[in-house]
Fold this sequence. Notes:
The structure holds 2 protein chains of 2 kinds. Chain A is of the alpha/beta class. Chain A has 2 domains: 227 residues, Rossmann fold (3-Layer(aba) Sandwich); 112 residues, Rossmann fold (3-Layer(aba) Sandwich). Chain A is 42% helix and 18% strand. In chain A, helix 1 runs parallel beside helix 2, helix 9 crosses helix 12 and helix 10 crosses helix 11. The longest helix of chain A has 21 residues. Chain B contains 10 helices and 9 strands. The interface between A and B is large, with 38 and 33 residues.
Amino acid sequence: xxxxxxxxxxxxxxxxxxxxxxxxxxxxxxxxxxxxxxxxxxxxxxxxxxxxxxxxxxxxxxxxxxxxxxxxxxxxxxxxxxxxxxxxxxxxxxxxxxxxxxxxxxxxxxxxxxxxxxxxxxxxxxxxxxxxxxxxxxxxxxxxxxxxxxxxxxxxxxxxxxxxxxxxxxxxxxxxxxxxxxxxxxxxxxxxxxxxxxxxxxxxxxxxxxxxxxxxxxxxxxxxxxxxxxxxxxxxxxxxxxxxxxxxxxxxxxxxxxxxxxxxxxxxxxxxxxxxxxxxxxxxxxxxxxxxxxxxxxxxxxxxxxxxxxxxxxxxxxxxxxxxxxxxxxxxxxxxxxxxxxxxxxxx
Amino acid sequence: xxxxxxxxxxxxxxxxxxxxxxxxxxxxxxxxxxxxxxxxxxxxxxxxxxxxxxxxxxxxxxxxxxxxxxxxxxxxxxxxxxxxxxxxxxxxxxxxxxxxxxxxxxxxxxxxxxxxxxxxxxxxxxxxxxxxxxxxxxxxxxxxxxxxxxxxxxxxxxxxxxxxxxxxxxxxxxxxxxxxxxxxxxxxxxxxxxxxxxxxxxxxxxxxxxxxxxxxxxxxxxxxxxxxxxxxxxxxxxxxxxxxxxxxxxxxxxxxxx
Lengths: 348, 258
């Protein structure tokens, strides 16, 4: 299955019953998959929205009723969704936002890119909030982590972003769908009409700064708990590594190809792959720097995750960078040449 | 035997409105609450207040509510209704919310024929932000952002929401009323009730536009504001039923195979 379809199927299996989206390349297959399969799932709602803005607000409304929800888009469309993502974070509404990144800024192009790292990991919209950001690098991971994303969103009542790119969305790999966990989401958070009881309201507006500050700190404490408990990463051949590449998503796949080549030439190279980009596996990366002193950050951007790596490693290790922005996808041999140059220069 | 002739609606909390003296929101809130009471739908109603003066509507309505970002109410309401088709879902919006920043969400919810009700407060001005020009501001009307009056050459024309929305095939019932007089208030309540009934009967999108007063930003007394609605605003925005296909919708629902 293609990555886009895998996300759709995993979402439906995880119990997603509301999807809204607007066409944009390179994620259209996902919207089309949902159009075909959501309405045949029991209780499933598919809505092609008039805009990305409407789509994110639709999933916010559906989420408030207690339904598992998802929307998807690509870079320019994700910019439009930011208002709603901020609102969902403020109102503590769970939901999944898929960003199949393309080249930017502006309309950019429809080629794979990783230029939305800052937007994804820094919240993206206005205000003091964070979104959990998950960056798979295989179709199997897209399947597993999309399912997990729904559980995480429920657990912390917060929007979760799946951050992939056009390459991940379009490529095809075989996958096995795991059995989803039974959903546990308390009814007290659902808005379904007051019945004979007390009415509820969901809001983000807190005019009194004392209330608003308290709400912000409450969210901050939640983000702290997420930071401490929910980081995911992969270490690939780091045990004997003298230089470690730090890369995620498609860039990590390219890095694995490059590492194979470099190892066959006798160079001890490893990979550290953050799977959650927020929370960033900072502590783990710093632990690694106890034995490895040379890191190369590799991204399909001009250097965004680079800043998080610097925050983790500055003063602990040497950090180099290689990146290709704007929808250019480097080959493993290009990266291998860059790594070899650094490796030889440092005389490792 | 004593007869109750006046009581606080059960769907309205015992809270003091933050609205300015003379504001039409207080009247329309009460009308909506009375209708919800009379129809016995408090327990199954979900409201979506807008950004704008009515953003705090959840402090007043004693029904489940969720705040929408500015203009996005109908998108949210559409989704809520799709997930809970047996609930009564209404969106409460001002003129900036519906006819400017949220025109796409409102237009397309109407065009999809979502079975929701929109209560649209048209007071020709942005109230909460301090009286700026709205999409429904009258030509030559002075606001803080049209200090010499709205000029058609520079600012365009007042947007006639009821006229436009009644043209969409997705809408079933569209009426414009006014709360500038007791008779108008009674008529508005009837229209709101009809709109909610249209939804309860599953007959599709209903919108009630209410010409409402904003004495503070119009810089008029309440009496003068009512006069201004009747003598000036009503010329540009004539009250009336713009679309009523309830009977047709009922018939086609009855004719449809089960």
